[in-house]
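Fill in residues.
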């Protein structure tokens, strides 16, 4: 778990694009099998993206 976040991997970038977010604007704070916590690089605003597993 990183407090400030790290650059997203390729799969994480693809998930962000699927959620209509620009991957270059977000850092990944935490990535689990259920959700991904991201932080905006500019504003510092945090979001939680739920992964759509079937």
């Amino acid at each position: 778990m990183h407090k400030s976040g790290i650059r997203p991997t390729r799969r994480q970038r693809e998930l962000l694009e699927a959620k209509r977010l620009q991957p270059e604007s977000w850092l990944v704070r935490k990535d689990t099998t259920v959700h991904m916590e991201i932080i905006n690089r500019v504003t510092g605003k945090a979001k939680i993206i739920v992964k759509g597993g079937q």
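The mean pLDDT is 92.
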